[in-house]
Amino acid sequence: xxxxxxxxxxxxxxxxxxxxxxxxxxxxxxxxxxxxxxxxxxxxxxxxxxxxxxxxxxxxxxxxxxxxxxxxxxxxxxxxxxxxxxxxxxxxxxxxxxxxxxxxxxxxxxxxxxxxxxxxxxxxxxxxxxxxxxxxxxxxxxxxxxxxxxxxxxxxxxxxxxxxxxxxxxxxxxxxxxxxxxxxxxxxxxxxxxxxxxxxxxxxxxxxxxx
Length: 211
Fold this sequence. Notes:
Elements: E1 12-13, H1 17-27, E2 35-40, H2 47-52, E3 57-60, H3 84-95, E4 100-106, E5 111-118, E6 123-127, E7 142-147, H4 150-162, H5 170-186, H6 189-195, E8 198-201
Parallel strand pairs: 1-8, 2-6, 2-7, 3-6, 7-8
Antiparallel strand pairs: 4-5
């Protein structure tokens, strides 16, 4: 892990976040490997949208979720069920500038359904609810936490389900959001916030994928 600038005290508006993050990266000492930006936050905060503005090499922690039928419903988002050994191996390959294949996790079948290629880039973005969990910290250069009000986050997810973009269905998604995703993430939220270099505020409703 490289030396990082001190954390910012004030939240950054979402529209300014890409510029601020890239400036953070530019302030770091030169490296002979790609840089890794981690973007964590609760479901629907806008993590994947922000990631897409920073790089073409995005590694979602959702891809390393467990097959849901192997885990009790209340434990499905707990980080100790995620496949961190595979995640660390995939990030290691990308940091060595080797193309790798990352898992594809289906929100329709709620399990891993194959792999997809990922080409390394100068900036690698790790995004998802587990992006600031302990195992990945040594690989990170800039740590970001994206925040948004709960009602706006649910509205984003509801829009995705109503327009058929994810396939879970509105009522199953509502049950999962309120019964699993929210209470699970709240157990780790203060820890992830404390680990972040930057807090990004995303409090405007947009028609984007919940992530």
